[in-house]
Amino acid sequence: MKPLHIFLLLLFSATMITAQENFVKINGSTNVNSFQFINSKFGNDRGAYSFSEKDLPNIILKVSDFYCENKMMTKDFQKILNAEKYPEMTIRFISLTKDQKNLLAVVEVKMMNKSKRYNVRFEMENNKLTGRKNVKFSDFNITPPKKMGGIIIVKDDLDLILSLATRI
Predict the structure, then answer these.
(1) pTM for the structure as a whole
(2) What residues are paired with 109 via a beta bridge?
(3) What is the spatial distance between Cα 162 and Cα 133, in angstroms, rounded to a whole number?
(4) pLDDT for the residue numbered 5
(5) What is the distance in angstroms between the CA of the first residue and the CA of the last residue of the chain?
(6) Which helix (H) or strand (E) holds 21?
(7) Which of 12, 93, 125, 157 is 20 to 30 Å from 111 by CA-CA measure?
(8) Residue 76 C-beta-side C-alpha neighbours within 13 Å
């Protein structure tokens, strides 16, 4: 292989690895099964997110970029979040402090013109910041859906996981 081809292959591979490090997962369950929606189609121009006092991230996610293995569930999720009227969800870091092991953040989640602030504990490992928070559909005035005439009931509780490539 020519040196230029090797260089381009390495550059492309590094870009793909960085892009895949950023994701938001929403895990939930019904009385029958569990589900997971993932959005990994976001990032910033600098590759990794910066976390300085003056430069905390404001992450804009397209609701249409969340996907699930089940196409029907993906479509239902986008309908529940009213993706046509509210195509974006925002996760904005308000503050970030460090304790002995972890980073503690106040994070504002905004969707469907409703905002809710959460205290989230993040762990830093290999230049990747990962946090997890239990949220609810009802936090955003969303009634958890029912399917098949009420036989399948989606639970109100959701597990939100945020993972970002970082520079701290």
Answers:
(1) 0.82
(2) 91, 116
(3) 9
(4) 40
(5) 37
(6) helix 3-21
(7) 125
(8) 15
Taking a C-beta distance cutoff of 8 angstroms, is the pair 32, 153 a contact?
no
- Residue 130 burial by Cβ neighbours in a 10 Å radius (0-12, 13-18, 19+): middle
d(CA 24, CA 109): 12
**Total residues found in the chain within this entry:** 168
What's the average model confidence in pLDDT over 79-90?
94
The one-letter amino acid at 33: N
Q: Do residues 155 and 138 touch, judged by C-beta distance below 8 A? A: no
- Our CA dihedral for 18, 116, 76, 30, rounded to 10 degrees, sits at 100
Residue 109 has pLDDT above 70, yes or no: yes
Joined together, the tokens standing for residue 75 give 């479509």
How many angstroms from the chain centroid is the CA of residue 46?
19
Residue pointed to by tokens 């929403």: 26
**15-27 pLDDT per residue, tens:** 444 444 899 999 9
Residue 158 DSSP label:
E
Among 162, 139, 141, smallest CA distance to 92 is for 162
H helix or E strand, kind and range, residue 45: none
